[in-house]
Amino acid sequence: MSHVFLLGLAGALLLGGAIVSLALARHRILSGWLAFGAATAAGVAVFAVVVDTFRAGAGQETVLLRLPVLGAAWTVLVDPLSAFFLAIAAAICVLSALFSVHYMAHFERDSVARFYPVLLVFLASVVGVLVTTDFLFFLVFWELMTLTSFFLVTFESESRTTQRAGRKYFIVTHAATLGLIAGALVLWQTSGSFHFGAMRDALATLLGTRPLVGNLVILLFLLGFATKAGVLPMGDWLPDAHPVAPSGMSAVLSGALVKIGIYGLLRVFCGFVPVAGPVAGWGIVLALAGTGSLFVAMPTALAQTDSKRLMAFSTVGQIGYICLGLGVGLYCLPDRPALAALALMGALFHTANHACFKACLFLGAGAVLYRTGERNMDKLGGLGGAMPVTASSSMLASLSIAGVPPLNGFASKWLILATCLLAGMTAPLFLVLGIVGLFISLVTLASFLKVVGAVFLGQPSEDPRVREVPWTMAAPQAVLAALCVLLGVFPQVPLRLAHAALASAVQIDLPSSQALIGGPWTLAPSIGGLSVAFWAPLTIAAALVVLSALAYGLQRSAAARVRRVDVWTCGEPHGPSAVRYPATSLFVPFKDAFHGIYPAVPARAPAFPPALRKALDLDRWLFMPAARAVDRAAHGVGLTHAGIPQLYLLWIVVAAAVVVAIVLLAS
Amino acid sequence: MLTAVLVLTVVLPAVGALAVSGLRPRAVRATAVLVATATAILGVWTVTLAYPAAHRVALGGLPWLSGAAGQGVFGLLLDPLGSVLLLIVVVIGLLTVLYSTASVGEANRDHPVGPEDQRRYYFWLLAFVASMAGVAIAPNFLQLLVFWELTTLCSWALISFYRNDQSLRAGMKALVMTHAGGVFFLVAVFVLFVRTGSFEFSALASLSEGARVWVFAFLMLASWAKAAQVPFHTWLPDAMAAPTPISAYLHAAAMVKAGVYLMARSVSAGWAMPPEVAYVCGALALVTILVALSFYFVQDDLKRLLAYSTIAHLGYVLLGVALGGLGSMEGFRGGVLHIICHGASKALLFFCAGAVAYATGTRSIAALRGLGRRMPLTATAFFVGVLAVTGIPPFACFWSKFMLFAGALQFGGAIGPILLVVLLGETLVAFSWMLYVGQQVFFGAPSPAAAAGADPPLAMRATLVLLMAATLVAPAAGLPLVGLIGR
Amino acid sequence: MTTGALQVLGLCALNVLVAGLLSPLFEGMLRKLRAIVHSRMGPPLTQPYLDLLKLLGKEDLRTTGGVLSALGPAMTLGSVLVLAMLVPMGAPPPLGFAGDVIVLVYVAGMGAVFLMLTAFASGSPYAFVGGSREMMLLLAVEPAMAIALVVGAVKAGTLATGAIAAWQAANGPSLSTILAGLALFLALQAQAGKLPFDIAEADQEVMGGPLVELSGPRLALVRWALWARQLVVACLLVEVFAPWPRLGLLPLDLALTLVKALVVLVLVAVIDVVNPRLRVDQALRYYLRVGFSALAALAFAVIGM
């Protein structure tokens, strides 16, 4: 079956599912199951396309619709880069839909008619964005994606914070889209077409003839996509919008939506910007933006007490890592294709990994919210015993995002940092960036130890409501956590896919994936034939397991008796909540050192000076006075009609005199 | 046959208007709906029949008025440009009548209307449909002028419909200001006839350089007044004293479009617009856009806010037309497409505002909060309208605005990019404010005024659903038509 | 293949045994040294071994029944031993093919992570305070350590730990590596949990911090892990920044490394004895300066000095 047929099938399933789930929105759970069913069926179709694309390469480009007036045509093509992101987005959306089935039941006052149908349309628009190769229609799907996600973010309709955050999200990203429109139009002016290929040629021409304009267009694209991806400072919408969305949607936002921004960046910088051109310079810009983003966002994340807000800030930080990888890759692209390929692969790999662990974490936070109604970590604690699946999934994901070997977060961070440092051997700037990246990964660790420690660990909670969430909510978390482990231990598989994706996107030939990542069990990237960095997850994992088992054997060797005791609180009996160490108090001096790194700028509606307002009120000083003047004049003329015959005679005489005078003077 | 259908499109609503004025109150609504439906079917049918060619018929003239060119004075013309206007007139006209059957009645909490007043209402409404259809198929300036003044008259009557002090003043103001513009139109037609002996649109191109500037300037003044452009924009916000369907139809979708249609007609007839006039037209359109935008932030009345938005969007159309006058075909087509896209979107917004006022009795943004829970369909329609009118794809105005942006950029030199940046900026600010208002009114905890809210009766709900669909379909209908312009 | 694999396994075993079995001895020597400075007799050199044996048999008191508190100490020790296999000890690191300096830095942090998780799992507020402090020290120390290792990597042009050590052995010291070695030495003070940086355990303040609720065999494993860590990091320091002389014979090189490590640890212990404990914010500020000095070393390395 052709790709277009399968994609069309997916789209039809999603739209059909949207309509059916809208019609059945009164039955919350049923509507949710229907949405999940539609998403899964569409996901299967999309995965068929993905698998086929990775197996057989990019398909045939198909024209679905022509708009001769604008020189645009809706063309559809799935290449491995699209397939890579399709797989991420579809997987995350399907899992989130499953999670939402029961989760959405706890919003009693808000109808799910505003959730499931919109979620399905959102997924359809994401698929549209990823498979379209014409920029005009790309923009159409892009904004459809924005507007559906806006309604998903603002689902909690009565909360002012939610509405404000959603508004900020939509306005900021719409501004970015307007930038994209401007950039696309400049290129269209040169080429007369919105097709990606034509735009690439147009950009190359433009960079040759008017480099300033060409680079401005690139800047517009960078801003447009980086805003969606959540790179600071444009990504300021993200820490507001993620926490207020329903948790299933937060997972989709972090797992799928911001990744589409990365897709855009890759498309533009790998596909459009000529390798011989300014790509290296833009690589530095991206790397700096990414590093700045992670340097600001992660310490800010550390200071949060709202668990979802913490995760949102860490999304900004992790996107920073991805951008750092992209930047290193682009910088190296012209001269060192091997290193470039590795860095870009690292960035892509981190994109997939981040989707797994961040979605898992948001779902975990959602599960906690579902049972306790609380996001404030100061008020939580000791949930691990009662919610084992949630706790262990969240903990694995936390360790993963913190980069603890041999989980997946480490594998991709390692690749990004290693390539960054290796690039730094000739361009020292990247050494500094790499070291900042290393340091910030420790801050990530601290942030997520805080989450794990403050929410799940410690003395068991006394809250009687707390028990494990229904399986529909637990299963997606478990799947994502398992993916964190699997992708970490077998990084070769995703890296090979990432390589295929890049090979289809960049404009130069990349070294083969075999040459780049080395042996079947070891990642040993080689530069110039010499392996300079090593990571063998299976070996390290095996060593860790064996040695820990030995140590545990030692622990049990003397068969020491185990006895349960209360926590020692200096002899005074206290309940768990009384002696619980609040999350706010963790890492205090360190957090203080970064105080003010993320300044809040309040936004206000524009205020117009009253004078201008008066000046613009034409009625007041122009029309009404004019009308009154006419009125007065008419009144003046009316005075002549006094009703006295003598007066009328006088007028006749005067008029006759005037006429005679005129005649005499004229002759 | 096409000719017969076209004539019928104008005659039928006129006959309908006369008929309803003589009917019993109970039959009025049904007759009006029937007539409007038939008109809409006829209108759409003629457009599809005529597509893609232009259809022109001379129907005769006045012996004492046949000029040097000797063409007939009366006739019919249906070309792509006229088709765009005709489509919007008949389709939105039908929806307006449909909406009015529920909205203009005793159940309206904002302004209850008794049965005896409805006769008057539908008479003027159907008369307006007829005169507006006449504008769309007028083959020359003289006939255009006649129907144009008829629309002004209908507008006056409908704005003053409630016959209270405020609406009488507003009606008078609208009449005086648009009619003052009409005087300039008259002068322009007169000069044209004296100089060329013809009323034809194409006669503009055969005018001498100096006369052409003046004729175009006069036509431009007329269209400014009709389309509520700065500095003649002040009548439109006051005209919101009219019943909401009237505001939607006359003062957003159709009548004000006659103003920009006149300009588009003049420009596209021979493409002979003097550049200096085009520059003035474009500059003033830009000023209008920005001035109207500046009024958004101080509006509390939903309808007044929408009126200012209409002013800005008419500015967009005129800007596109001016760009066309300066040689940018993309801009011109964008402007014309904007007529239909904006017509559908803004009518939807007005109908939503009307539904809100119908249910709650107020249009004050400050008084309304959290309506969405009680009026889900209206809320959905309002947001669709906001997104459509501010140009979020895939809704209507995105396509026309996109073409306008493209046209702006086709303008070489520094002006093009600057124009683009200004337009994009306006788009963003307008979008932000509209979104904010939408959230204020429909989200949040319900206010006391919102407690009475409920989705409106079936006829109004159907109108909203149809218009939501129209915001998606409008560009599909408009793009093939505008693609024919200038070929 | 088999001989190569066997060789790797043998070296792994050697490193694990050195780190595991000799680290209590080193600790014993350091205790003796501290006693001498204090003008005390001090415990016998074998006292740490005896402590461990005794603790392994003692009753295991647990505040929570979770898997994490049961397995945490074993994971802590396990990860420190994995670190030992990534560090050269008289020979190239046995798992050098499986992990470069970046892996090394992360694995070094892993032990602390498991210790903190164990601490948090216990539910004791003192453990939370201690864990929080441990994390902040990690935040302060690891960058300095990483920068020092990156200096070596820049000089050697590779990220492989063994290759960096070999390059050092072949090319001799330079200004940048000396500075970097100094930074790593200063980082060792906190890695070993010695005064003035024993802030996390701080017996007098938070009663052992992360260790407060550990007892019996679990305490034994954690103690052991901490001792092993100080030895392994000391070995890393001397192998990467002072690998001379290289004799080419494994037992001799290993012995030499251990002697050098002892010298380093003695220095650490002397600093420990003569200093009072710093507050954690003072420690942070101190290591910020160390980190910036290490950046200076990096700058020197970049310009080839």
How is this fold's topology laid out?
The complex is a heterotrimer of chains A (667), B (487) and C (305).
Chain A: H1 3-23, H2 28-56, E1 62-67, E2 72-76, H3 80-103, H4 116-131, H5 135-153, H6 160-191, H7 196-209, H8 211-229, H9 237-244, H10 247-272, H11 279-302, H12 307-332, H13 337-372, H14 388-401, H15 408-424, H16 428-456, H17 471-489, H18 492-505, H19 513-517, E3 526-527, E4 530-531, H20 537-557, E5 562-564, H21 576-579, H22 588-593, H23 610-616, H24 618-639, H25 645-666
Antiparallel strand pairs in A: 1-2, 3-4
Helix pairs in contact in A: 1-2, 1-4, 2-3, 2-4, 3-4, 3-10, 3-13, 3-17, 3-18, 4-5, 4-10, 5-6, 5-10, 6-7, 6-8, 6-9, 7-8, 8-10, 9-10, 9-12, 10-12, 10-13, 11-12, 11-16, 12-13, 12-15, 12-16, 13-14, 13-15, 13-17, 13-18, 14-16, 14-17, 15-16, 15-17
Chain B: H1 2-22, H2 25-50, E1 55-60, E2 74-78, H3 80-103, H4 115-136, H5 141-159, H6 165-196, H7 209-226, H8 235-238, H9 244-253, H10 255-268, H11 275-296, H12 302-325, H13 329-360, H14 376-389, H15 396-410, H16 415-442, H17 458-484
Antiparallel strand pairs in B: 1-2
Chain C: H1 2-37, H2 47-57, E1 60-62, H3 67-86, H4 101-122, H5 125-156, H6 161-171, H7 175-191, H8 203-206, H9 216-241, H10 250-274, H11 280-302
Q: Estimate the global geometry of chain C from the Cα principal axes.
A: globular
| Sheet having the most strands of chain B | 2 strands, antiparallel
Overall pLDDT of chain C: 88
The number of distinct structural domains of chain B comes to 1
* Poorly predicted spans of chain C: none
Give average pLDDT of chain B, whole number.
Answer: 90
Give a short account of the largest sheet of chain C. Answer: none
Helix content of chain B: over 70%
Q: How many domains is the backbone of chain C divided into?
A: 1
Can you count the beta strands of chain C? 1
Report how far the terminal alpha carbons of chain C are from each other: 40 Å
Spell the H/E element sequence of chain B: HHEEHHHHHHHHHHHHHHH
